[in-house]
Give the backbone structure.
Amino acid sequence: MLARLRYNLDFMPSPVPDQPGLLVRDSYKYSDVTLIIPPVLVETLQCFDGQHSELDLRSELVRLTGQLQVSDIANNLVDTLSRSGFLENQVFEELRAAREREFAESPIREPAHIGTAYPVEPEELRAVMREYMGENAASNGTGGLRGIAAPHVSPEGGWQSYRAAYRNLNATHRERTFVILGTSHYGQPERFGLTRKSYVTPLGEARVNERLFAELSSQPAAILEDYCHSIEHSIEFQVLFLQWLYGPEISILPVLCGSFAQSIYHGGMPEDDEGVKSFLATLGGIAARESDRLFWVLGVDMAHMGRRYGDAFVATADRGEMTEVGARDAKRIAAMGNGSADDFWNQVQENHDDLKWCGSSPIYTFLRAVPEARGHP
């Protein structure tokens, strides 16, 4: 049997005009390879499901190409996918083990999106951040603020929203530990990814609050030194903006919140899972005890709609289907502002979260941990 094609790869139409086909890359970054599968070969990928043999692949190639001599094409395709780490076989297992070992042994969390989402050089980055945020980005902040919800989209695409969120902070928040609850795009459901590694950006090194890390790390739902931290952007971008405001040596507690998929698809509440319940209770205890020594930052996005996300329609804000989406988003935001975790989660569960919010679990985690908080858009 042919090895199975990994389910957690990224697939998209090739963006290269003179190389049409299907672009395949590894979102987990176990492999650095990017492939473009020619159009004639795209259908053959269905043979890599663990149920088809090499003979099946050759038969499919004969049908697609009209050629009888396809052994070289078949062998090259299998070899290329395997060497790239795109098949569930020994090559991939070795790649994964090496990457995860590398992250575990590193004393710091290296920046994963440097050079693509933001500049490499510190001075160039500072210039870009000044353009995004202005010279006095935190000057509009007021007292009594417990936290903010900010996007985790690329800063270039969402800088207006980042600025609107981070301009609510002021100088009094500088000495707090920033509890950053980020969406875990790649992590296990019903689990929380932790790391004690400092987050490094071109602006400097943000250190993890070891005491609070140790307290959360005892929880059965916690994944310690979660490899997902090494590739995730939902926390990295928040660190960047916090360092811009307060300098590099801020204190952070980064927590990646896995999806509460069991609850979304099978009913009940997230804390029906005993591990989730215990983690939320411990985090809530920390929130109550530490109070104003903490500041909460939620790295979240909301509805993901349109053809890019599997819908049958083109998504244009405030038009067609998006009118209803906007109204439903507003209801969820109102539930967040009222501090109503139950109401918020009931809405998330509608149609198994057909709005595809990319931030439901961090938001719910915050609402349970800080139930007295109230907010506004």
